[in-house]
Amino acid sequence: QVQLVESGGGLVQPGGSLRLSCAASGFPFSGYYMTWVRQAPGKGAEWLSTINHRADSTWYADSVKGRFTVSSDNNKNTLYLQMDLLQPGDTALYYCARVMRPSLEEYDYRGQGTQVTVSS
Fold first, then answer.
1. For the segment 54-76, what is each residue's pLDDT rounded down to a tens digit?
2. What is the C-alpha separation between 34 and 17, in angstroms, rounded?
3. Percentage of the chain lying above the pLDDT 90 cut
């Protein structure tokens, strides 16, 4: 079965960095677009970034463009999100998900999430 397991979250000070990882299994990872979304307390899910199956095209929400970088390693079946210049507004539960094409943001499977807290 499809499994997505996020890791790498934690507490970081404003201006700091974190790198999230998402280990995928149960499906041919190299054949799918993958995405990151987040959900802050009391808010709806926010799409952040998508990467294509060849890892040569990426898309970003305006809120994270220039600060977050998505990447993937098809040999390791792993998706990454490098997050720099973190701000308190980035505090949320971060999920990786498998994209349902032709959309770039809709997904059919999502992991359990990893918590990111940005605070001094």
1. 999 999 999 999 999 999 999 99
2. 21
3. 99
- Smallest CA-to-CA distance from 15 within 86, 78, 112, 68 is with 86
Amino acid code (one letter) for 73: D
- Cα–Cα distance for residue pair 78/14, rounded to 1 Å: 27
Tell me which residue of 66, 9, 15 sits closest to 39, measured CA to CA: 9
Helix, strand, coil content of the chain in percent (nearest 5): 5, 50, 45
Cβ-based neighbours of 81, under 8 Å, separated by 6 or more: 19, 20, 22, 36, 48, 49, 68, 69, 70, 94, 96
pLDDT band at 77 (very low <50, low <70, confident <90, very high): very high
Average pLDDT across the chain, whole number: 97
Mode of pairing for the β-strands spanning 92-99 and 107-110: antiparallel
pLDDT in tens, 15-31: 999 999 999 999 999 99
* Residues whose CB falls within 8 Å of the CB of residue 27, separated by 6 or more in sequence, listed in order: 2, 98
